[in-house]
Write a structure and sequence with these properties.
- It catalyses: GDP-alpha-D-mannose + H2O = alpha-D-mannose 1-phosphate + GMP + 2 H(+).
- It holds the Pfam family NUDIX.
- The chain folds into two domains: 49 residues; 134 residues, Nucleoside Triphosphate Pyrophosphohydrolase (Alpha-Beta Complex).
- Helix content is 23%, strand content 41%.
- It has four helices and ten strands.
- The radius of gyration is 19 Å and the shape is elongated.
């Protein structure tokens, strides 16, 4: 659950929307993900089932260098069997109540080795709100200093690539960048006039 969404608030919102929870059980849990199964009654009165994927808060960061280049990572995504172009992003499953800014700076350094001296909040987003509780915070990182990446063992295949902004945008147009979080974060940053 994200820092600013509490279980009580979510439950109250469900009830206000007309949902009734008949039962709830934890179906699966690992350090990154929990799956809960709720038996519910929809506002229409029909009985149903909701599988809810619970994941921690994440941060996604668009690093922009002084010359206007953007840094992206590329990594293999096991569930779909493809390497994807993405902004640096992630969550810390071993730390609770981490501020979004701390998470963003940590993920940026961990995956790319970049240290941001300026971090600008650009919005929030939900990843898969139809099935998941995971909330993300979007940041623009500037005034970057390049250092050594501090990747976890599971991130050893990550490669970092700097490219001009127009090349990045062209990759989106051509369908070469398909990570929805990266595209949504870019849209928020662009819509706010930050780039």
């Amino acid at each position: 659950m994200s820092q600013d969404d509490t279980s009580a608030e979510v439950q109250k919102a469900r009830e206000k929307a007309g949902f009734q929870i008949l039962s709830s059980r934890l179906a699966y849990k690992n350090p990154w993900t929990a799956v809960r199964e709720d038996i519910i009654i929809h506002p229409s009165g029909k009985k149903g089932l909701y599988g809810v994927v619970e994941r921690g808060t994440f941060a996604v960061i668009m690093p922009v260098h002084a010359n206007g280049d953007v840094s992206l990572i590329q990594q293999f995504r096991y569930p779909i069997g493809k390497r994807l172009w993405e902004f640096p992003m992630g969550m810390w499953e071993t730390k609770d109540n981490v501020k979004a800014e701390e998470l963003a700076l940590g993920e940026l350094r961990e995956e790319t080795g970049l240290i941001a001296n300026e971090l600008i909040p650009a919005g929030t987003l939900y990843q898969g709100a139809g099935y998941s509780t995971q909330k993300g915070y979007v940041f623009l990182a500037r005034d970057l200093v390049r250092g050594e990446a501090e990747r976890e063992e599971t991130e050893s295949d990550i490669t970092v690539h700097d490219m001009p902004l127009d090349v990045f945008e062209d990759m989106i147009k051509k369908g070469e960048i398909t990570c929805m979080v990266t595209i949504a974060a870019f849209a928020q940053i662009r819509a706010r006039g930050l780039i």
